[in-house]
Specification:
- The protein has 172 residues and is an alpha+beta fold.
- It is built from 2 helices and 8 strands, in the order H-E-E-E-E-E-E-E-E-H.
- Strands 1-2-3-4 form a 4-stranded antiparallel beta sheet, with no helix packed on it. Strands 5-6-7-8 form a 4-stranded antiparallel beta sheet, with helices on one face.
- The radius of gyration is 25 Å and the shape is elongated.
Length: 172
Amino acid sequence: MCLTAASAALALAAVLVLAVITTQPAQAQDFTTLFSFNFTDGSEGVATLVQGANGNLYGTTYYGGANNPTNCNEDAGCGTVFKITPSGALTSIYSFCAQLQNGQCPDGNYPLDGLVLATDGNFYGTTSNGGVNGHGTVFQITPGGSLTSPNYIQLDTATTMTIMLRISRYLK
């Protein structure tokens, strides 16, 4: 059976009309802002969030927080670790540079990367500045906000990112 061009065009039109009629419209996606930072609870959340065993989300902000020593750029705070519930209730659980000693932040400041949840239930992260030598720290923090910087390990930014990748492989 040989179709003419007109018949072929009519058949194609019928198929296209049928496809349009039976196609479901795309569902709109809702976007909801859960929380807006105000500097005292953090500023510039540039890292991803991680879900804790309790269902809350945990993250870091690069600036902001309760501590604002003169060695933090632009008097913007030294960064935070926070938790946020799925409904949007945010709690700052740690503000960096809380252990100010001789003008230095041995606990670190400016957390640049996100947190890693380990099998021990604690979170691990890094800061890009501060520490004993001023080049950042690797820290452990409990879901309640108790921070430990094991041996105040000193890192540069490239090493920080590499360590975080390695930590995430071994602690899960």
